[in-house]
Amino acid sequence: MHEVIRRSFYNVNRVSAGKLIFKAVTCAFIICAVLSMTSFSAQSESISESILRVHIIANSDSEKDQSLKLKVRDMVQKLCYNIYSENDTGTLEQAEAVISDNLGYIEECVQQEVYAQGFDYTASAELVNMYFTNRTYGDITLPAGYYDAVRIVLGEGKGHNWWCVMFPPICIGAAENKAEISDVLNEKQTDTVTNGSYVYKFKIYEIYCDLSEKLNGK
After folding, report:
1. 135-144 residues labelled b (16+ CB within 10 A) or e (exposed)
2. How many structural domains are present in the chain?
């Protein structure tokens, strides 16, 4: 009987020890994950503060409105290429200043394109700070977060949108004296946006950002 009781206590203690080890390992994993994500979050925020995006929203999802959106996209790409080529836009501050100075001109050109394609609704262009989800452009993945952006709204702006990067000008054609992604971001940031192994972190961070958006009522 004593032997049975002793073995029972031994088994209980072994199970308890196993649970404690499991909990300790789990806690250590969670702490490491949180610390890692905290570092990644700071890195992602620093990236979002170095990039200028462009966001074009179609009037609706009709075939004609979506086709117009793509025509406006092509026109804006050429327009901004010319604007960049005629000005010094080697830094984000310079690029934003040039775009801000030409925002009225960009809006006017977009409106003329809308009319030229046979539509009668209005178009607007503004420089905003807005939320973007994870987005991949070629071999570059930008994390979710708030970015400065040129937002162009066509008509009621209820259709699917197109977005890309205006600075550095990876989506509008790089003028010969303009910055590339590696010129704008430091080595660690560049590795983050070009290294495919960060995909899972991008997704986790996006979920974190989405939850923050909902909790903050944005």
Report:
1. beeeeebbbb
2. 1
Is residue 202, in this structure, part of any structural domain at all?
yes
Domain contains 37: no
Give the pLDDT score at 151.
Answer: 97
Show the tokens assigned to 172.
């509008």
Q: Return the pLDDT at 18.
A: 52
Q: State whether the Cα torsion 210-213-216-218 is positive or negative.
A: negative
Q: Write out the residue range of the structural domain in which residue 158 sits.
A: 48-215
pTM: 0.73
For 30-82, write each residue's pLDDT tens digit.
Answer: 434 444 455 667 777 888 888 999 999 999 999 999 999 999 999 999 999 89
Distance CA 36, CA 157 (A): 38
